[in-house]
Amino acid sequence: MKKWIGLGVLTLAACGSDVVSVNTEWFVRPPCASVQCPPPRAISAEIGDERYAVACELTGTGQTQALLLRAQKLNGLDVEYGIELSNGLIVNDEFVGGDGCVFKAIEGNTYQGACGSSAPSSSQPCQISDFKASGGSISLSILCKQLPLQAAPSEQTVSVTAPGGIGQPFSVKCSNL
C-alpha cells in the first residue's frame, strides 16, 4: 500500500528575539479513495514550547558540517506527527547527504529512509536540494518518493511533497540560528 504525505512550507523564523519558531502544514494522500486519510496537519511553535520538539542545528566547523532539522507535535512524551532530517552532511557549503543522512515523516507510523542530493531512488528515497546557509539562516527543499514504513519497509511507502504538487519538493527555512 502506498500513501502520499504532502508537507507544506516549513519555516523556522525569528520572532523579534533569539527564539526560533516553526510553521508548517502537510497532509496524507493515499493512492486510492478507499483509504481513510488523517486530517491536514499544522505546526506553529517556538523552541521551548513543551507541546513541540523543534530543532534546526548546523554543527561542525570548516569544510564539513552536519544538519539536524526537527518539527514535531508531541502528545506527552510521544510524537503525534512531524518531520525530522538527521545527519545531513554539508561539505564546502553544499548538501551531499552522506551515509548517515536519514529523513523521517511521523504520521501515527514512522516512515524513514536515506537522504542525499541525488534524485529519489529505492536506496535513497529523499532528495535534499537548494541548500543555502548564510547570515544565521538555512534554507533547503525536500522531496521523498516511496519512503518506507520503518516497521515494515516492504509493505507500505509514502511520498513526502509540497501540498500543491505530488512531485514538488517542500521548502524549509530556519532563521535566527
Series of H and E elements:
EEEEEEEEEEEEEE
As a percent range, the share of helical residues equals under 10%
Shape: globular
Q: Number of DSSP helices?
A: 0
Quickly list its features.
177 residues; mainly beta; six-stranded mixed β-barrel; globular
Structure commentary:
- The chain has 177 residues and is an all-beta fold.
- Helices cover 0% and strands 62% of the residues.
- It is built from no helices and 14 strands.
- It has strands at residues 2-7, 10-14, 20-29, 41-46, 52-59, 64-75, 78-91, 94-97, 102-107, 109-116, 126-134, 137-148, 157-161, 170-174.
Please describe the topology of this protein.
Layout: E1 2-7, E2 10-14, E3 20-29, E4 41-46, E5 52-59, E6 64-75, E7 78-91, E8 94-97, E9 102-107, E10 109-116, E11 126-134, E12 137-148, E13 157-161, E14 170-174
Give a quick rundown of the structure.
The protein has about 180 residues and is mostly beta strands.
